[in-house]
Amino acid sequence: MTFPSSTPASSRPTLHGNYVLLRADNLRLLLPQHEVGSLAYLETAPDAGDLPGQFLFRNDEKLAHSRFVALSEKMRLMPDFPVERFVYTTLGHEEDDLLCWCWSQVQILPESEISPQYLPPVLRSPGSPITRFTELRGKVVFLCNARQLRQYALDLPN
């Protein structure tokens, strides 16, 4: 899918830096690498937690204090844990390390050059952290930051 842009590619600003591509099924998010914490693999799917959309490992001493979440393609918490999510990361600052975000794929993109385009207003969702996108290997990838993603997905006030 390619979106027309009113700004010619030659005049769009290019971003340089280290990024992480986070994939949740068909949702592809690009975040600055410094906003994505440690990465680990899940050996089994977590159990349903006490709160809708949060999952936990009740019988795993190492992970017992962590809560796991998985995003839908609309960037909302999924009520059931998707079995194809086998890798997780933390997002944001150290105090958020107890919340683990589960992904289908995590890929580090060091020293990247990205030329984002603004998402046309008609395609923006109210309150969404997504305002820009780019194309990466023939796929649409949405740029955002950890704070905005957390606020939107967890339905937190601004």
Proportion of residues in extended strands: 35-45%
Overall body shape: globular
Number of contiguous helices: 1
Largest sheet: 6 strands, mixed
Strand tally is 12
Q: What is the spatial order of strands in the main beta sheet?
A: 9-1-2-12-11-10
Task: Compute the average pLDDT.
Answer: 88
Series of secondary-structure elements, N-terminal to C-terminal: EEEEEEEEEEEEH
Low-confidence stretches: none
Roughly how many Å apart are the termini? 31 Å
SS-derived structural category? mainly beta
The helical percent reads under 10%
Please tell me how large the radius of gyration is.
16 Å
What does this structure look like?
The chain is mostly beta strands and 158 residues long. It has 1 helix and 12 strands. It has one helix at residues 146-153, and strands spanning 15-24, 27-32, 36-41, 47-48, 55-56, 67-70, 87-91, 99-103, 105-114, 117-118, 132-136, 139-143. A 6-stranded mixed β-sheet has the order 9-1-2-12-11-10, with no helix packed on it. The chain is globular. The chain starts with 14 loop residues before the first strand and ends in a 5-residue tail after the last helix. The mean pLDDT is 88.
Quickly describe the structure.
The chain is mainly beta. The chain contains one helix and twelve strands; from the N terminus they run ββββββββββββα.
